[in-house]
Design a protein that fits this description.
Radius of gyration: 24 Å
Shape: globular
Strand content: 25-35%
C-alpha cells in the first residue's frame, strides 16, 4: 500500500507543481497590468538581454566575459518570469531520472549533457577487446572500462600534449588549492588560461565516458559481478585478474583493506562483502578510469589526496556502494566531484556519513559530478563548494532520495565581507563562476522525502552567482533551514558569531537561484540579504507549496530585490509566519546601473491560511500591498 501511495503522489506532483507556478505567474502579470508597469518589466528583460549580448563570446565590459558561458544559463536570464517554470520542470525531471531503478546514470547524463551544450551523445560503440575464453561478465567489465578510457582520451584530444600537461598542472591549483579563495581562482591571469583550456575539451566525449560506464551501475550487472567475484575468490581474501584494461581485484566476504594509490595499476575493485577499508584512490594520466563496486558491508572510505571516492580529475571515477552503513572521509574534489572529468558516487542503502572539505559531494568544474544516495538517514558535512555545486562548464548534483538527512556546509573559511561576521559556504545547490575569469555552471541539491535539517554559511542553498544557475529542492517532510552553521567545521565552538548572509534562495551578479519545497511544515532562517534576495541582474524564486511555514529574518530582506532583477516568494497554503523588518520590497532605482531600464521587481504571494506578518507591515496589509515602488508588492489571498 505504501508503494502505491508513493507512486500516486509522484504522478500527481507535476500537475500540482504546474498549477502553483501558473498561479504565481498570473498574479505577477496581473499585478503589473494593474499598476500600468508591464512595459517597465519588458524593459528590464530587454536590459538583461542587452547585458548578456554585450558580454557574449569574446565581447567584454567591465569584468564581464563570455568565457565558459552555458546556453541554458543565458536563456534562463533572458526570460526571468518564465525561468521559474523551467527550473521547476528541470528539477522534477532530474529527480525522477535519479530515482529510476534502472538507467539512472544514463538518464542523469542525458539531462546534464543538454544543459552543458552537448544535446546528443549518440550511441557509444564498445571498445574492441581480445580476451580468449574470458567470462562474459568479466568481458563486460573490461569493455566498459576501456570504452570509458577511449572517450576520456577523446575529451583531451583537442589539446596538444603540452596543453594537457599544463592543464593537469594548473587545474587543481587554480580552482581548489588553498590559494583559490572561493569562489575565485587563485590567479586571474592563470585562471583565464585554465578556462581557455577547459573550453577546448571535447565535452561530448567526456560525457560519453559516463554513458559507457553506466552499464556497471545497473542492477543486473551488479548481480552478475557479485557472482563473478564469488567464483573468483572461493574463500580467498583478494584475487587479482590481469586484463587488457589493467589489474582487477576481486575481494571476498572478509574485511579487506585496499590501499589504492599503492595499487597504481589497478583499474577496478569488485568486493562482495565485509566491512572493508578503501584508502586514497586518485586518478592519474596512467589510470584515467577507476571503478570501485562494493556490494555489501559497513565500509570505510578515507584519504587525503584530491580526486578520490568518485572524484574525477581529468578522468572518470566511479564508486558504487550497494549496501551498509558507510563512512566517507576526504579533503578535496571527492565524493562525487570532478575537475575536467566525471565523478560518480552511488550509495544505494544504509545510514551513511559523508565528510569532506572543499569541492566535495556533487561539486563540478568542467564535467559532471553526481552523488546519489537512495535510502537511509544520512549526514553530509563539508566546508566549502559542496553538496551540489556547478562551476565553469560544470554540472553538479547531490540527490538524496529518502531519509531524515542533515546537511552542513561552512564553519571554516572566512567570509568575503568585512562588515558582517560569519563564514563562507558556497554550497547546497549553487551555481557559481569565478568572478572576472569565467562564467559558472549548474549546481543542484535535491532531497526526496524525510524530515531534513539544513545549515549553511554565506552564499548557500538554492543560489546563483556570476552567470550561473543554482537549484535546491526538497520534495517532502518537515524541514528546517537553520541559517548559519551552529558549530565550527571541526565540531567546536565557532570563532565567528552565527550570521547568514546570502542564503536560502538568491541570485547575484548575472545569475539565478531557485528554491522549491513541495510539502511539509518548514522553517527558513537568515540574518540579512537572504530568504529570496536578488542583487545585480539576477532572478530568485522561493516556492513553498504547502504546510505551516516560518520565514524568520533577524533583520531585513525577505523577498527583496536591488540593482535590477526579479524576486518571487510563493507560499501555497498553511498558516505561515513572516518575521523581519522588510518584505516584498523592490528598490525604486538601481545603484549599479545608470540604464533607465534597470528596474527591480518583487512579489510575495501567500495563498490561504491564517498568516502572521511583522507589526510594521500588518496595519497596511491588504489583498495587494505596494512596497518600495509599484514593482514591489505583497499579496495575501
Amino acid at each position: 500500500m505504501r508503494t502505491i501511495m508513493i507512486v500516486v503522489l509522484l504522478c500527481c506532483l507535476p500537475v500540482f507543481a504546474c498549477a502553483s507556478i501558473d498561479n504565481l505567474t498570473d498574479e505577477f502579470r496581473s499585478g503589473l497590468q494593474r499598476r500600468g508597469i508591464q512595459t517597465k518589466y519588458d524593459d528590464m528583460a530587454a536590459f538583461f538581454a542587452d547585458r548578456l549580448d554585450a558580454s557574449a563570446g569574446e565581447k567584454t565590459f567591465g569584468d564581464k566575459t563570455g568565457n565558459c558561458r552555458l546556453t541554458w544559463c543565458d536563456a534562463m536570464l533572458r526570460r526571468p518570469l518564465e525561468s521559474i517554470g523551467m527550473a521547476d520542470a528541470f528539477t522534477r525531471d532530474l529527480h525522477a531520472a535519479a530515482g529510476r531503478t534502472r538507467g539512472t546514470v544514463t538518464s542523469v547524463t542525458r539531462i546534464a549533457s543538454a544543459k552543458l551544450d552537448v544535446p546528443e551523445l549518440g550511441d557509444v560503440p564498445p571498445a574492441r577487446v581480445s580476451m580468449k575464453r574470458a567470462d562474459a561478465t568479466l568481458l563486460l567489465l573490461v569493455r566498459a572500462i576501456l570504452t570509458a578510457r577511449r572517450e576520456i582520451d577523446g575529451a583531451l584530444a583537442p589539446l596538444t600534449p603540452v596543453e594537457r600537461d599544463e592543464l593537469r598542472a594548473k587545474l587543481y591549483e587554480q580552482t581548489s588549492s588553498p590559494r583559490a579563495i572561493a569562489p575565485f581562482f587563485a590567479d586571474q591571469h592563470e585562471g583565464r588560461r585554465v578556462s581557455d583550456l577547459l573550453e577546448k575539451l571535447d565535452r561530448r566525449s567526456l560525457l560519453r565516458s559516463a554513458s559507457a560506464i553506466a552499464v556497471l551501475t545497473e542492477p543486473g550487472t551488479r548481480s552478475r559481478l557479485a557472482q563473478l567475484a564469488l567464483r573468483k575468490t572461493r574463500g580467498k581474501t583478494v584475487v587479482t585478474e590481469e586484463t587488457p584494461a589493467g589489474k582487477i581485484l576481486f575481494g571476498g566476504s572478509g574485511a579487506n583493506t585496499y590501499r589504492l594509490d599503492e595499487l597504481h595499476d589497478v583499474c577496478a575493485v569488485i568486493d562482495v562483502g565485509g566491512d572493508d577499508t578503501y584508502i586514497e584512490g586518485a586518478l592519474s594520466a596512467d589510470r584515467p578510469v577507476l571503478v570501485i563496486i562494493d556490494l555489501a558491508g559497513n565500509d570505510r572510505y578515507q584519504g587525503e589526496q584530491p580526486g578520490i571516492q568518485g572524484g574525477g580529475i581529468l578522468g572518470l571515477s566511479l564508486l558504487l556502494d550497494a549496501r551498509g552503513d558507510d563512512s566517507y572521509q576526504a579533503d578535496d574534489v571527492a565524493q562525487g566531484a570532478c575537475l575536467g572529468g566525471i565523478g560518480l558516487l552511488l550509495d544505494l542503502a544504509g545510514d551513511d556519513r559523508y565528510t569532506g572539505d572543499t569541492r566535495v559531494q556533487g561539486s563540478a568544474v568542467a564535467g559532471m559530478a553526481l552523488l546519489l544516495d537512495r535510502t537511509g538517514n544520512d549526514a553530509y558535512h563539508a566546508a566549502l563548494l559542496a553538496q551540489g555545486v556547478g562551476g565553469p562548464f560544470g554540472f553538479g548534483l547531490l540527490d538524496d532520495l529518502a531519509g531524515n538527512d542533515s546537511y552542513y556546509a561552512g564553519g571554516k573559511y572566512p567570509d568575503n565581507y568585512d562588515d558582517t561576521p560569519g563564514y563562507s559556504g558556497w554550497s547546497q545547490g549553487v551555481g557559481v563562476g569565478p568572478r572576472g575569469v569565467a562564467n559558472g555552471g549548474i549546481g543542484c541539491l535535491l532531497d526526496g522525502r524525510g524530515d531534513d535539517v539544513y545549515e549553511a554559511d554565506y552564499f548557500s542553498h538554492g543560489g546563483g552567482y556570476w552567470f550561473a544557475i543554482g537549484c535546491a529542492r526538497d520534495f517532502g517532510g518537515n524541514d528546517q533551514r537553520l541559517g548559519a552553521t551552529r558549530l565550527a567545521f571541526d565540531g567546536g565552538e565557532r570563532n565567528e558569531r552565527r550570521f547568514l548572509r546570502w542564503g536560502y534562495g538568491f541570485g547575484c551578479h548575472y545569475a539565478a537561484g531557485y528554491l522549491f519545497d513541495d510539502d511539509g511544515n518548514d522553517v527558513y532562517h537568515g540574518d540579512i540579504v537572504g530568504i529570496a534576495f536578488t542583487w545585480d541582474v539576477g532572478i530568485t524564486a522561493l516556492i513553498d507549496r504547502t504546510g505551516d511555514d516560518q520565514y524568520l529574518m533577524s533583520s531585513s530582506g525577505i523577498c527583496t530585490c536591488s540593482n535590477s532583477g526579479l524576486t518571487i516568494l510563493y507560499d501555497g497554503g498553511g498558516n505561515d509566519r513572516y518575521a523581519g523588518t522588510s518584505l516584498g520590497i523592490a528598490d525604486a532605482v538601481s545603484q549599479y546601473h545608470k540604464d533607465t531600464r534597470a528596474y527591480n521587481f518583487s512579489l510575495l504571494l501567500d495563498v490561504g491560511g491564517q498568516d502572521e506578518y511583522p507589526e510594521t507591515l500588518r496595519p497596511h496589509l491588504s489583498a495587494d500591498t505596494e512596497y518600495g515602488w509599484a514593482g514591489g508588492f505583497v499579496i495575501d489571498r
